[in-house]
């Protein structure tokens, strides 16, 4: 009798590869974001979509505070149309980053979700900044 794990067969490798490639097109993780900043290779804009008050208290180094409600075509026009935006919020219990990614996509912009958000960053043991770098 098969285990609960193998009761439903795993996907064929080609199908699995397509699935995970599609998933990775929508998300990145805290470690990859940190590594890109550490290497000076951040080819994306990191957006903290929480409130300015929460951002001022603590945020991921290199992030810009821009709540999803302030993501307008005019506001986003300061960046190149082909810029990649990485968005995060409080953590897995918060859908603010999903709303931000949705809004960016509706504006015709590319976005990825930083999975885990602030919670994931803390879980990795990475340091936060506390200075205010809020966008107007």
Plain-language structure description:
By secondary structure, the chain is of the alpha/beta class. The protein contains 6 helices and 5 strands, in the order H-E-H-E-H-E-H-E-H-E-H. It has helices at 13-24, 30-38, 52-57, 73-76, 96-106, 117-123; strands at residues 27-29, 45-48, 64-65, 84-88, 110-115. Strands 1-5-4-2-3 form a 5-stranded parallel β-sheet. Strand 4, helix 5 and strand 5 form a beta-alpha-beta unit. The mean pLDDT is 94.
Strand line-up of the largest beta sheet: 1-5-4-2-3
Task: Give the strand tally.
Answer: 5
Task: Tell me the Rg in angstroms.
Answer: 17 Å
Distance between the termini: 61 Å
Biggest sheet descriptor: 5 strands, parallel
Order of helices and strands: HEHEHEHEHEH
In short:
36% of the residues lie in helices and 15% in strands.
What is the element layout, followed by pairings?
Elements (H helix, E strand, L loop, with lengths): L12 H12 L2 E3 H9 L6 E4 L3 H6 L6 E2 L7 H4 L7 E5 L7 H11 L3 E6 L1 H7 L13
Keywords:
single chain, 136 residues, alpha/beta, five-stranded parallel sheet, 36% helix
